[in-house]
Amino acid sequence: MTETKELPAYMVDFIQTLSASGRSSATVKQYSSDLKPFAAWLENRKKIASLEDFKSLSSADVISYLHGQKAKGYTAATIRRHGTVINRLRRFYGLDPLGIIHLVSEVEPLRKLTEKDFINDLQLRKLLKSIKAEDIDAVSKAVSRNVLIDRNLAIVFLMRYFGLSPSEIHHLNMTDLNLSQGTLILRGRPVRLKNAYLIPLRSYIHSIPKLFRPKYNSQQPVFVAFNNVSMSFQYDYSLGEPKRLSVRAIQSMLLKEMEKAGLHGLSALHLRNTCILESLNGDQSSEELATHFGLNDVFSLRRYIEFKNSRE
Prior knowledge:
α2 packs across α5 and α4 (about 60-70) packs antiparallel against α5 (about 75-90). The chain has helices at about 10-20, 25-45, 50-55, 60-70, 75-90, 100-105, 120-130, 140-145, 150-160, 165-170, 195-205, 245-260, 270-280, 285-290, 300-310; strands at about 175-180, 185, 190, 225, 230-235, 235, 240. The chain is mostly helical.
């Protein structure tokens, strides 16, 4: 159970609902941790302890709290995360979010995007060519990588062409995937996969021995953990299902593939950024794009729009 003794009752209810909704224990713990300094500030500076008092918070109050975090040396990323948690707490109680993302940006503006925040076509082709090339080294880790070529390609495609983060890929379940129809449920809605993306995904699934292969139409993971030493897919016997590939393993795989391709400094974020930027050329509204990519606010798209306009 996540430690919530330092939180007021209405925040505890929010945390417990998150836990009951299926959020990972790590996510719930992070939310609780992020709310504790806010709860202390509310009590000590604003004398706010009840939900009714919390509802009276103004934009100026939130800005004051975030400025206080900046003065204490919190990083920009942490300040934005805390602002997002406050936003979600307000939404949980049906309150206006006060434009939290906008307020956070006033306190700690995000830097402007540059060409270095994206992966260009030449770099992407170089990455894909490198992933497809088998290693001839006899070292077990190199050999095991060859077994995972299709899996790695599928993951890169999901990042680049659908803007999925390592965390979203980690949480994909077999109920989200329909190989026969070639569709994948992404952020609550089905999308059709082109053959170029579907083929490696299907090949990867079929490469898993039946004993360890995730079952169709189940809550079992699409991407299964792999042991480089034993060269085998992993099974969680305590849960009675294949072991889910971790976020860290996904990040590590991509980092190694980027380095192997000579693309030092590029990451999953570069792939996602490129997908978001490219989507601005479509006919979806800013609101639809923010929802599609799981962004907290339409305001989060501003950097991408400004960068796009600067290139035109």
